[in-house]
Amino acid sequence: MHYRRLASFLMGAWLAASVLLDFCVIQNFRAVDRFLDTAGVSAAQQVHTLGGRTEARTFLRLEVAELNAFLFEQWEIFQFVFGISILGVFIFGGGEAPRAALVLTIVMLGILSVQRFYLTPEITRLGRLPIDAHFWMLHGISSGLELLKLSLGLVAAGTLLVRHTDRKRFVREHEKMTRATSPAA
Questions:
Q1: What whole-number distance in Å separates Cα of residue 9 and Cα of residue 43?
Q2: What are the residue boundaries of the structural domains of the chain, listed by start?
């Protein structure tokens, strides 16, 4: 039964870190406007040398976009580590993994693959060009897939947290554990 705890912990860490990263990248863009609104004298002079607020905002948002692209690329690698670790726990954990959690984790890894190998590189490439409708369409698809992945992760975590109520199964597992831990007679 410990495999459920470990898989639940890993899934929770994956979901929590995803929400935290999403929050951070949104705040990175908002920080540009907060900075420009509260810029001190020396920063205001630098904004002026860049051609004014509009040009400075564009420049700073490009920098934030590059930072966010880097964060997403690194986070996607870590997400593979989380997902593959969860699958490893299911496969080698010694217990019977809930099929729903197993399937949902595989689907989450599939969504992650689409994000990692198509959407993120394409959004990064298009973000370096003048922004057009195709960029926003891909950005919307990526955001939607992120929400879907989070939702699937919540459902998978829920299936891990719900204990099976089959009493005969519980007795079999208890007997199996007792035989495994008791000294040979």
A1: 44
A2: 2-181
